[in-house]
Structures are given as C-alpha cells and as structure tokens.
Structures
1.
Amino acid sequence: MEYGFIFDMDGVVIDSNPYHKIAWGKFLQGKGIPCDAQFFDNVLSGRTGPTSLKIIFGEDLPEALLEEYLAEVDENYQSILRQSEEVKAIAGLYEFLDSIREKGYRLALATSAPPLNIELGLEKLKLEGIFEVVLGKVDVVHGKPHPEVYLTTLERLGLPREQCIVFEDSKAGIQSARSAGLPVVGIASGHSKEELLEQGVSLAVDDFTDLHLEQVTGLINHR
C-alpha cells in the first residue's frame, strides 16, 4: 500500500526553537517587553505567531499591525538562520526519512511558516527536494488549528486520509491534523509527551531516534 507521511516543519523537521527564541526576544526587546526563557515557554512556545501577538498586545491588535509584527519576527529569524552554522534537524530525522524513501512512500511538508523560512530551513538541513509536496503559510487562507493545510496537502498528494499520518509538535498543529481526520505522531520538542497525548496524538515520542517505520504504518492501519 502507498502511504503518505506529512511533516510539520518547526520543532518536527528543524530544531528551530533556539532561533525563534532569539528572534522573538529581539522583537520584544525592541517593543520594551522583557522576554526570558520562562516567558517564551509559557507564552510563545507551541503557539502560532498571531495567537502569541494577541496574547501579548491584546485581542484588538489591528490586522495591519499584526502582519507588520509577524514580518519583523520572521526577518529576525531568517537573519539568525542565515548566520548560523549550527542548524540541526530533530534527532533521528535523517535516518527516519531514509527509511520512508527506501520503501517508496510519499513525503510532504505542511507548515505555517512563510516561504523564506521554509526555503532557508530546508537549505540549511540539506533537505531540498526531499518533500514532493510543500505547503506553507501562503498556500492556505486559514492557518492551523484550521484543518485547511492538511486537507490541501492530502489533495496534492492524491492520497486518501486513511493512508496518511502527520508528525506534529504543537497543540494547534495536532488540532489541525485531527480535524482533517488524520492520526498524529507527537514530537515532544515544545510540549511534554503527556501534554501531546492529552491532545489526542496516537503516539508521543521525544524525537525520531527510536521511531520505527513499522510502528507508524501500524498506526495508519489500526486506527
């Protein structure tokens, strides 16, 4: 049977939390708002950019200002990523991707990131061309937790949801995938495994190190 493996990007493919922390810290410092590790973990980690900004600046933050702030954070992140020589994949990712490709299964990337974040991340990890379908922020009207990004990915893969599975690390991403009718493997890069299981993932792991392809296809077949 043909299977589709759909990956979120930040915290699932790329270990980007350290860079997002710096990017957000620089942005908030410029706005006179202190941002330590605790603030990042409690307010920003695992949330979408718009949600984080509305928590910080209030629900009535004008849309134009929200987009301006998001662009500023993204520019900070892109600058940091370009300069860094230490960008890493989530542990075990390369081996796991190799095992998928050896079987001829399909690979897709479904993220809320803007195009340049995706391009830079894949370039730094030397994963250009690995994912046959790549969807980002500009490809959908509704971001996660809306299911659009995963429903659109299924369409572009040309596979039924019954043959696909998602890898996510955030609550919004898990909600998005599950609303699209897809099972989820939770990667505990931003939340604990217990928190991910509470969100309804089929399996929660620290990373890809001890994850076997048979485990994952088993989750697809026995849901």
2.
Amino acid sequence: MPRRRRAAAASTARRPPRRKRFGQHFLHDPAVILRIVRALSPRAGDHLVEIGPGRGALTSALLECGDCTLDAIEIDRDLAALLRERFAPPRTVLHTSDALEFDFTALSRERGGRLRIAGNLPYNISTPLLFRLLAHASAILDLHLMLQREVVARLAARPGDADYGRLAVMLAPHVEIERLFDVGPGAFQPPPRVWSALVRLTMRAQPLFAVSPHYAAVVAAAFAHRRKTLRNALGRVLTAAEIGACGLDPGARPETVAPQAFNTLARALDRTRG
C-alpha cells in the first residue's frame, strides 16, 4: 500500500466514531473555513473561543492567530483527546465540557477581556445555547456561528416576516445580527440534510432599551401560540384595555409587534405586578 494511502488509513482508524446524540457534522471545506476566519478577522490581543472544535479543521486556522488566546470547548471526550496535544496552556486551552453549562463569564475574567466566540453549533442545541450565551452577554464581544439556515433566518427576521418570532425578539435588545453567507451540506462530513449559514452576532455596548423584568415572560406567552392575537395570547396577564393603553391593537398578531413594543407591554405588567 502506498505511503500516503497508509497514512490516510491510519488517520481514519484513529478517528473516534461520530456520535449522533451530539449532532456532529464536521466542517472540512478549506474555502469555507477561510471565509469564517476572514469574517472573524482576529486581531492581536483577542480572546478567541471555539465551541465544538470537533476534528479541529477550524481550530487549525485559529491556532495560527499567534497574538490571540484560544480556548476550545468540546463535549466529546474522545475528540478532545485527539485535539489535546495541539493545545499548549496558558495561551491555548482545551476544555472538555458542555457548552450549555460552561461559565463564559469566568473565562472572560480569567483572560482579562471579552470573548470572541466562533463555532459550528449542533442543530439540536443551537437555540438553548444562544440563550445561554445571551446570559453571559457582558463577557462576550461577538459571535460568529454556523447554524442551520432556518435558524439564521429566524435570528435576522424583522416584524412582519414569516420567520419573526421569540428568538429574534429576545435577542434584539442585546445583539446586532448580520447574516454573512450560506454553506451547503457538502462542506460537512457527514453532509447534513439541510443548508447552514454563518451569522455574526455583535453584543451591543448598551441594550437597545431598558429591558423589563417581565420581558421574557411576555414574549414567551405571546409566541406560545403564533396564530393567536395579543388579546388571546396575553389574556392571563394583561387585559385588552391594558394592551390598548400601550398603543397596540389587541387584535394584532405577535409576529407583527416590534421588540420595543413587547417591552412596553412588559412595563405595563411591571405596574400591575409590582
């Protein structure tokens, strides 16, 4: 057997099996990886974090950013074992951990600056992970994330769009969203059944508005049943008169209501609940 073929066979043999429960689709297209790094545009002194390095294709490019720190978070212990020899603390650290439980705020304090996060997120945890990252917004500068294309459409949607919903409304006060480019299934191994897209989320220096403590509850109730009107969706917490007093039509559907207006509704709830 030729040497190159033997090396490839040995490399394949060392690869851990793909674990479906982690939603693993490994990015391998060099052109896409280059576009991600160019979009991220690392600068000297940046504190980079990669979520889900997998087999290390994007990791290799990030490790070349010599004036940056790099922390990678990998839940799969077998993949982490393969990657570990490429990390040399303290500048580069591999964390064998679940990103849904990871303390990004503590890492930001340890690194001495806000984090720039990149990653190819598993489709099955993308939404809860976005909310997890939002909870650590003060520790994060921006995120460059590969997500299912439909999720990116929901992130970037505006009032009245078919994809507008809870995700866009919850992120709006804290995040500026820019859809960058689409990525076909062939860029991954194994290829997923759906297209993906890279999105940039930049944390706002200040929230777009002072967010009510009841904002999340109002938004969740409004979109629990998309076809309901505000009157019906929020009937347990606000009357039609109270909704009208906020300058909104109680007969309007939630998918037409701007984030600031949802906050106005939440402020009304603040007054009634104390």
3.
Amino acid sequence: MSLRSGARVEDALARLGHDVVPIDVGLDLIQQLREAAPEVAFIAMHGRDGEDGTVQELLELLDVPYTGSGVLACVRSTDKVLAKHLMLEAGIPTPEFFAFNETAFRELGAAEALGAIEERLDFPIVVKPSSQGSALGIKFARSPADVPAALVAAFSYDSKVLLERHVDGRDLAVSILDGEPLPVVEAVPQGDEFYDFQARYEIGRTAFVCPADLAAEITAQAHDLSLRTYRLLGCEAFARVDLMLSAGGELTVLEANPIPGLTDTSLLPQAAEAAGMSFDELVGRILELALQRAPAT
C-alpha cells in the first residue's frame, strides 16, 4: 500500500511542477536523504516505521521538514491501546477492550483470564495488533474457539494485542485536512462480513459512499468526535479517524490514522473529492502545510 500511495503522490507532485526524488526506505535511508537534500519529505509510509514516529524522528534529526503529524502524535495514534486509553480519559466513546502483551500470556497466565474477558466483551470479538495499520493482522472471533488462532495472528504482527468489543453497524471514516473535517465516507464490504485488509484495498471488494447517507445530526457528531480525537492525539495537517455507527445510532471511535492512505481506493482522497478538491490539489495542500511548518532558514 505504501508503494501505491508513494507512486500516486510522486505523479501528482510532478504534475504540480515539483522536482521529485522517490526514496524506497531501507538501510541506506540516511544516505539517500543526505544525497537528495530535500526541501521537504512527503511521507507515504503506512504502518510500522512510517506511521509510528520512527521516520519522523530521523527526519527531524536531519533537519528535513516533513508532511503530516509530528513524532508524539504518531506514537499516540499508532499505538491503538494508548490511543484508546487517552480517548477513555477524555470522554470520547470507544468500544470496550482489553489489551495484553506477549509476556502476559507467556509468564503471567493471561490465557486463564480469556473466559472472563470473553464474557465481558461478548461475541463476536475483534482481535487486533496494537500498532499495525491497514487492517493487517485483524481477526474476527465469532466464538471462544476462534480466539487462540486470532491471538496468534495478531501476535505475529505485534508484541501487544487488544481484544475489542465488536460494534455491529456502519463503518465510517472522517478525514481531517488542516483542522477541518471533510465529508464522511462509509465503507460497505461487498459480500464480506468483516472489513479486512483484502476488502479494504482490492477494487470491487468494498463499496464507498461519500458523503455517507447520514442524518445531519449524526454527521455533525461524527465530525465533532473526529476533531476531538485529532486534537487529543496532537495530529497536524491531515489525518483520518475511523468510527462505527451502531444500529442504535451510537457513534464510537475506533482509531486515528496519522498518515492515511493515498491510493485509488483510499478514503482521504475520496473525501477530498467530495469536498471539491482534486487529488493533485490535495497533495499540493499537504505539501504546502509542511512547508508552512518548516523553520525559516
């Protein structure tokens, strides 16, 4: 996904008249950055290293301005467990959850508590790694028998996992650009009960509705919750907040993404288009915000 976002952004920047130096992140990242000496780095990495503050920290070390949120906001947002605890403390509704690291299972006997957890959360349960993006490693446990395999899958992506109450409802996303919410996008899986990685990125597996067909008060509430989450986590320039709308009309926040995707199936570009902004204009605005934040030389 990162490569697809990067290629699309590279094309847009070239159309906007910028000199673009694509960098495929690897062991020679620092060397590539020093040789390129960019005026600004447009980050199109998702998930671990790109979205969790790692690359941002390195860019700050090299005094290279970059797009999107800073290190702390990336750390807060990418760690789903930390983000959910912060939301609870701030009074932002989020589905009930429990979180454990591998040590809890290997050395503290947390497996013995699974029955109590399952009783508290009820089935089905969503099991997910704490720090991955793009729905990677997320499993849907419909019964106690499904939980062990779901935990194994989640632990293969991260040393900390969370078990979260499943909200049966509508999957919504609010993208925010420069502190302003864009039209709500609804993701409607086609033939899949669960919106997994494949459903998210394979064209035809998910239908997207933007603006989502919602009552005005629900749209306003979704915008308000998303802005509160964006500010709580310290996000800057742009981000995307994912929410669920239950059958009873209750909104809960699942997570925030400090570097949302920019592929042809990604939600931020769709929301920007619904707001009357082309993809090139979106990329140009994101770049402009990074340059505005760059220290004067």
4.
Amino acid sequence: MATAEELAAEEFARVVATHRQQIFRFLLASTRDMDLAETLTQDCFLKAHRHWSGFRGESSAITWLMRIAINLQKDHWRNRRVQFWRHTRSNAVDSEEASEWLPSGESSPEQQLLAREQVKRVWRAVDGLSERQRTVFLLRYVEEMDIAEIGRATGLSEGTVKAHLSRALGRVRGELGGRK
C-alpha cells in the first residue's frame, strides 16, 4: 500500500514526463538559448514540485506549469536584461537548428528547405515583437494553446490576449510580406 506522499510523487513524475518537453520548447522558443531554456525548465519543475501540494487543480497542470515558466522567464529578463541579450547574441540557437524542433509535415527535401526558410523568417519577425506579444504568439502558435489557456497562463484577460495576438500576428505577417 503506497503512502499519500508516494502517490503524490508518482503523480508529479507523470506530470513532468507529460509536460517537460512542452515547457522546454516554449522556453527555448522564448529565449532562443538552449542552456538557459534547460535551466529555466528545471527551475520551473523544481518550483512546481515545491508547491505541488498547493496545486488545487483549478486549471490544467500544463496551464499551471506554463504560468510558472512565464514568470521565471519574466524574472530572468527583468533581473538580467543586459546580460541576457549579450549572452543570447553570442550563444543563441541557430534558427535552422530551432526549426528542426518544430514539427513539419513536409516530406521532400525541397519542401523541408522551404519550410526551414519560412521558419527563419518567422523567427526574425518574432524577435521584433514586444515581450508580451512574443509570449502570447509563442503560446498560441508554438504550444498551440487556445486563447483561454493563454489567458490563464499569462494572467491576462482573453480580450487582452486577443489584442496582443492580433498585433503580433499583424507584425509577423507584415514582416513576411503578407496581409496585415
């Protein structure tokens, strides 16, 4: 017979196994630095583990974890803004390498090359977004979260999420030469 602590530990281990890649992928897309993304991912799960008994289940586990990840990312940027940008310029993930992390339904090498080129253009456009627009954009289009989930994860109202998403999408489309 397992104790309550053992059951909670098993449940948390399942949550980590289920959501670790998604949290890491979001943080990598947000920071464009693999070492930093890995560190923040570990910090996210460490913080979640410390507060696991306080998780009330009012939102899904991924929404709760994403909120922690977003807050860790904001704290990092707030505390080390100058160092962060200097570091990412010298150690940033190559956009071609980052494009390989994203799922692609393309089959031929030519189609894969075209998809990678498009991803590079999108990354350049996303780099120009404000922090909040970039976060909302990445949660929607990289993590495929819906508006309500993004709102819960960021603490923003759905209307505010929609506004930031619309502005971000308009800027990205504008950079890609598409309609605004």
